[in-house]
Amino acid sequence: MNKLIITQKDQVICTALAEGQKILQLSLEPVRRKAALNSIYIGRVQNIKKNINSAFIDIGEGITGYYSLSDNPRHLHADGTRTTDLKQGDEILVQVARDAVKTKALVLTGRLSFTGRLAVLTAGKNGIGFSSKISDQAFKKRIRERLSQEDMEGFGLIIRTNAKDADEETLMEEIYSLKGEYERIIQKAPFRNCCSLLYQGPASFLAGVRDSYSSQLEEIITDEPNLYEQIAAYLEKEQPEDKRKLRLYQDPLLSLKSLYNLDRALEDAVSRKVWLKSGGYLVVEPTEALVVIDVNTGKYSEKKTLRETILKINLEAAEEIGRQLRLRNLSGIILIDFIDMAEEADRKALLSYLEEVVKKDPIKTTVVEMTKLNLVELTRKKIHKPLHEQLAALRGREEEAKENWV
């Protein structure tokens, strides 16, 4: 069972997902954040780059986003019209689909989507998909049959993991609530100015509450009365079944941050070296193009054969790498240099185990292959900034931000 810890220092909110005393995920965000993920704006086309088939869209407050013309063949204009042509100065509806990462602008999309606890609804698409963590075929068939009777033309749906524990009517109510939100935005857009914010994406800590697996969430804890009230209001409206899980922490002798050792977790999450229980260690190197992780035997001293030693360290490393990807929010292309194994059976066992580990990650992570150089390739979907960039953005440079939390 997991606990969601939400605390604040100065103007920074820290959200942590803990399993026992082990931190699985961490995120930091300013209290007043510009261009939150999933927010919808009326953007103005600043310029169009035909050589990369994309446009750059101004959404106000000095923020410009990247808009792929390949991924967005049709454009929803503020006046309600839809076209396949786009020119400089056009005002269109866009949504923040991905945070800015390093030197890259944030990514915008014209396919407006709305995320709920049980489902994600996307306008301009058709079809029904299910979370990869839902394996119940009878459930999928029943939901498909029910949705085929509803008016969902022009809307795509993804049924989220939490839906498998909810009743059918609750799921349908949420889907129509999401659809209603889309319709309200379309109706008010023609009467709003350019760069207006039409829909505010939820704060990171509320998204953390929404996206937690209900069956695995034991408690939501905060020591901030203001945050407690916001979470309580959200739960009352969106997740009344989880209201009992919310607790206001009030111990004057031991802070919530200290109780869960968040300062140490933050230290670990930006450290280059990660020690394993066996004495081996990882070296984690995020670069501009990809993330490289090296596995080393380190201080391992058990009296086993060389083959057994290498396999044991690699399996332990695979488990820890799964946690580190979530903890640090590393994404994109990831290369892992495991300790070389001579036996094909051992290599297959390692890849199989790694696949099981990354299935626990709520963000889609795929084990691609082991190359001829014995490097394991992974991909992890890019959504939020990695933790080290969140730190750098909040305090100007990594060390200043880290010291403010420790």
Automatic annotation (TrEMBL):
Keywords: Hydrolase, Magnesium, Metal-binding, RNA-binding. Residues 38-111 form the S1 motif domain. It comes from the Bacteria. Its cofactor is Mg(2+). Gene3D superfamilies: Nucleic acid-binding proteins. One of its GO terms (molecular function) is metal ion binding. GO terms for biological process: rRNA processing. This is Ribonuclease E/G.
